[in-house]
Design a protein that fits this description.
CATH class of the largest domain: Alpha Beta
Structural class: alpha/beta
Shape: globular
Largest sheet: 7 strands, mixed
Distance between the termini: 52 Å
Order of helices and strands: HEHHEHEHEEEEHEHEHEEEHHHEEHEEEH
Oligomer: single chain
Strand content: 5-15%
Number of helices: 13
Number of domains: 2
Number of strands: 17
CATH topology of the largest domain: Aspartate Aminotransferase, domain 2
CATH superfamily of the largest domain: Type I PLP-dependent aspartate aminotransferase-like (Major domain)
Length: 454
């Protein structure tokens, strides 16, 4: 794993000048620069702001934005039935009461000069970082310290931004199908070639298929940066402890780094499954973990998440010198992020209170019951399903082109799903259905789908 290193030009115009220094004279830039600046501000035709050409490699729009446009276009036709959205993974139930009460108390503090708070620490307030480390990790025997927790406004941001720490030339392994952010952020950074037949040249794709139970196999050659997500988005697959240990062992052998997205950890009900990558030996040396309160406690509109970066994680310079990934992320985080608001962090802290835990557990159980119902109905209709047991997502073989199946359910049933092709080449022919909705809407959606597919 190599670091990203670049020389930057330095503007010294802000430095104080000596008293006897004459005022700076207006000067012209070198002819070699391709333009001339003088009193008339003349510029050549070749001087212009340039774009990052790698953005041209991106597909026309982000998957979920594309779906939203298609749904909006259909809504304008005046459909007979209201549309039920089981596509994007957005929760529908209100924040837990414990979180709302903590929110109110924090807002009241902000209304009093004596307790008002301005800028907070970029990494998060100690009260939340300490609670996270203690309750989510130390209570499980995972030795994560509070200063290894970085509070942020979303796992999407962190999982997209973390790649900035590493050299453009590192090799990147990404599962297929996959959450699009992992791919697109590396495309923007210039780590890929062009788009060809559903994939970007230059990435190492890890096929997740029915044959391997949607758990990708280890790369045959060494790679530097590995993205994993379990319980998986979009397939709903959950990884075993032994399989996760194999990934950690691979990373240690190859001095690689795993970026582990555990945003759906709260949906795991099988006690034998790992709840964090730090449940397996050696992960502190080679793994960063992303967590979120969005699906756990309904914070999709409130925005709060965190990333764990153990101090033992290392990346390497061109000469092989080990550098702390923790220190690099801390530097990046404090430069580009200015903390989550105090009331939101107090609300997140309340998730760990006895009342908060009970209320969160009830919401998770509610969505899992939705998933169970969807799974049972789709199987009864003769469709193969993965997920929906330790995950809010169901990965369904649509027996046809995934965009065609998406259009069929939208226009004939008024139900929005997510076409699997949007998650990668291995997603072709599949759709993802989300359990995030009311049970009443889920039962209505399945009744409509049943009529269309019968």
């Amino acid at each position: 794993m190599r670091l990203s290193c670049a020389m930057n030009s330095v503007d010294i115009s802000f430095l104080p000048q000596a008293e006897d220094t004459a005022p700076p004279k207006e000067v012209s830039t070198s002819q070699e620069c391709g333009y001339i600046t003088n009193n008339h501000h003349r510029y050549s035709d070749t001087h212009m702001i340039k774009i990052n050409e790698h953005f041209h490699k991106l597909q026309s729009s982000y998957l979920f934005s594309d779906i939203a446009k298609r749904v909006a276009a259909y809504e304008r036709t005046g459909p007979e039935h209201g549309i039920i959205k089981l596509g994007i993974g957005d929760v529908t139930r209100a924040l837990p009461k414990a979180c709302i009460e903590a929110f109110h108390r924090a807002v009241d503090e902000m209304a009093d000069d004596a307790t008002f708070r301005g800028y907070g620490p970029e990494q998060g307030y100690d009260f939340l970082r300490e609670t996270i480390a203690r309750e989510d990790f130390q209570a499980r025997g995972a030795p994560i310290e509070a200063d290894e927790v970085f509070v942020s406004d979303g796992a999407k941001c962190d999982s997209g931004n973390f790649q900035e720490l590493f050299a453009t030339g590192v090799s990147v392994a990404i599962p297929d199908p996959v959450y699009p952010v992992y791919v697109d952020s590396n495309v923007m950074a210039g780590r890929t070639g062009p788009w060809r037949d559903g994939r970007y040249a230059g990435l190492v794709y890890l096929d997740a298929t029915r044959e391997n139970h949607f758990i990708p196999e280890l790369p045959k050659a060494p790679v530097d940066l590995i993205y994993l997500c379990f319980p998986n988005n979009p397939t709903g697959a959950a990884i075993t402890r032994a399989a996760l240990q194999a990934w950690v062992d691979y990373a240690r052998q190859n001095k690689a780094l795993i970026l582990y997205d555990a945003a759906y950890e709260a949906f795991i009900r099988d006690e034998d499954l790992p709840r964090t990558i730090y449940d397996v030996q050696g992960a502190r040396e080679v793994a960063v973990e992303f967590r979120s309160f969005s699906k756990t406690a309904g914070f999709t509109g409130t925005r709060c998440a965190y990333t764990v970066v153990p101090k033992g994680c290392m990346a390497y310079t061109e000469t092989g010198e080990p550098i702390s990934v923790h220190s690099l992320w801390n530097r990046r985080h404090t430069t580009k992020f200015n903390s989550v608001s105090y009331p939101v962090q107090r609300a997140a802290e309340a998730v760990y209170s006895p009342e908060g835990r009970r209320q969160v557990h009830e919401r998770i159980a509610y969505y899992l019951n939705n998933a169970k119902y969807i799974r049972e109905k789709m199987i009864a209709m003769g469709y193969e399903c993965a997920g929906g047991e330790n995950s809010p997502y169901l990965w369904i073989d649509g027996k046809t082109d995934s965009w065609e199946f998406f259009s069929l359910l939208l226009t004939r049933a008024g139900v929005v799903c997510t076409p699997g092709a949007g998650f990668g080449r291995c997603g072709r022919g599949y759709i993802r259905i989300s359990a995030f909705n009311s049970f009443e809407n889920v039962t209505e959606a399945m009744a409509r789908i049943g009529k269309v597919l019968s």
